């Protein structure tokens, strides 16, 4: 019977287990947004994961939306990431780069005074943390067709750069209310041209990115992350199950490395948004024919259950990997887990980043 410790094939990779590390924004790449020695240490510590999916990584300067997050669009960033991937590979691990454009979830502070870019001029609402303090989000600029084509090509170039940097593949970040998600959902996409209106049109932005990226690096090196029940960053879709059923069925045409689905981590009210699925992975398992990764809120026990019941092929863990660099070993040996500290998720330096102990130098260790 399959379990979390069974090997699995992802694309052309033979992976040693199904305990994957989820993409985790940690804001530790400095103002230069170039991966550094601290990032190298962090990822190397966690290389026992069957697959590491990197923190969200900007495809361009206009894709930035958070403090000190890394990019993959300059030679210096490629070189920085190469040190990370070499370190992971030296420990027998594998790593994909998550490609990211935040779209409307940004602020002119990050964009040299320019407005964020989006399918439609609709604000995500809420506020965002910047180096100049907390700011209200602004109304974004609606993308022109030529700007859409430019961004799609930036995804292609970022995929090419990722392979040059030594990544084993890329994951398109299509979740959590960022640019790809903004095109898919009708609450954020109210265009009247070929990229808006029907779900066929709203899917076109992602469809054309997939065509470019798969042609550039090969479909077996491409995964995608979606959040069909996501309500963050002002997201909404009027027919969410129908929308994502169409999108996920279309993904079958690409024979990708995997589809990565988020379970809802915000409570969906019982009296509202009734079409939003409480268990999207289980539902879309019926539609998607390829390798399916599930994420958000899993414990060791619920992860094992999902694998053994064929709900998912692998489970990605986020916060547990933050605080337990040797999470696979702890799971396998039924060992106590370190607790994470939310106050250090997005701060500078080693504290709360590379100083979590593995079991053998943990206070829990008893000889």
What's a concise summary of this model?
With 367 residues, the chain is of the alpha/beta class. The chain has ten helices and 14 strands.
Description:
This protein has 367 residues and is an alpha/beta fold. It has one domain: Aldolase class I (TIM Barrel). Helices cover 29% and strands 16% of the residues. The protein has ten helices and 14 strands. It has helices spanning 37-45, 75-90, 145-164, 179-184, 199-217, 240-251, 280-284, 300-308, 319-323, 327-332; strands at residues 8-10, 13-15, 19-21, 52-58, 95-100, 117-118, 127-130, 133-136, 141-142, 169-174, 222-226, 258-262, 292-295, 314-317. The strands form four sheets. It has an eight-stranded parallel sheet with strand order 3-14-13-12-11-10-5-4. Strand 13 (292-295), helix 8 and strand 14 form a beta-alpha-beta unit. The longest helix has 20 residues, at 145-164. The radius of gyration is 19 Å and the shape is globular.
Beta-strand proportion:
15-25%
Report the CATH C-level class.
Alpha Beta
Mean pLDDT: 95
Major sheet details: 8 strands, parallel
Radius of gyration (CA) equals 19 Å
The largest sheet has its strands arranged as 3-14-13-12-11-10-5-4
Specify the number of helices. Answer: 10
At CATH level 3, the topology is: TIM Barrel
Instruction: Return residue spans where pLDDT drops below 50 for at least 5 consecutive residues.
Output: none
N-to-C SSE string, H for helix and E for strand: EEEHEHEEEEEHEHHEHEHEHEHH
Oligomer: single chain
Main structural class: alpha/beta
Overall geometry: globular
Number of domains: 1
Distance between the first and last residues' Cα: 33 Å
């Amino acid at each position: 019977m399959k379990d979390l410790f069974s090997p699995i094939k992802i694309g052309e990779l033979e992976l040693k287990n199904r305990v994957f590390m989820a993409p985790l924004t940690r804001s530790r790449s400095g103002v230069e947004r170039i991966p550094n020695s601290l990032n190298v240490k962090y990822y190397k510590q966690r290389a026992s994961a069957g697959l590491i999916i990197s923190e969200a990584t900007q495809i361009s300067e206009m894709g930035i939306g958070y403090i000190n997050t890394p990019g993959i669009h300059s030679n210096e960033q490629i070189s920085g990431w190469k040190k990370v991937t070499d370190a992971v590979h030296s420990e027998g691990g594998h790593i994909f780069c998550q490609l990211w454009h935040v779209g409307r979830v940004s602020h002119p502070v990050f964009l040299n005074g320019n407005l964020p870019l989006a399918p439609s001029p609709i604000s995500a609402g809420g506020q965002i943390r910047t180096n100049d303090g907390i700011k209200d989000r602004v109304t974004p600029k609606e993308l022109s067709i030529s700007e859409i084509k430019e961004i799609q090509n930036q995804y292609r170039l970022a995929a090419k750069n990722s392979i040059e940097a030594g990544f084993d593949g890329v994951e398109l970040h299509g979740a959590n209310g960022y640019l790809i998600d903004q095109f898919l959902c009708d609450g954020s996409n109210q265009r009247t041209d070929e990229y808006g209106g029907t779900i066929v049109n709203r899917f076109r932005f992602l469809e054309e990115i997939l065509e470019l990226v798969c042609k550039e690096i090969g479909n077996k090196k491409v995964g995608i992350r979606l959040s069909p029940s996501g309500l963050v960053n002002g997201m909404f879709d009027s027919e969410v199950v129908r929308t994502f059923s169409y999108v996920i069925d279309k993904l079958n045409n690409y024979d990708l490395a995997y589809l990565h689905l988020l379970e809802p981590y915000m409570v969906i009210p019982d009296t509202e948004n009734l079409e939003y699925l409480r268990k999207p992975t289980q539902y879309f398992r019926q539609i998607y024919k390829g390798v399916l990764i599930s994420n958000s809120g899993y414990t060791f026990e619920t992860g094992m259950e999902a694998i053994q019941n064929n709900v998912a092929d692998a489970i990605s863990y986020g916060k547990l990997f933050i605080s337990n660099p040797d999470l696979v070993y702890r799971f396998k040996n039924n060992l106590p887990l370190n607790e994470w500290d939310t106050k250090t998720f997005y701060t500078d330096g080693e504290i709360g980043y590379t100083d979590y102990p593995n079991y053998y130098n943990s206070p829990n260790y008893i000889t």
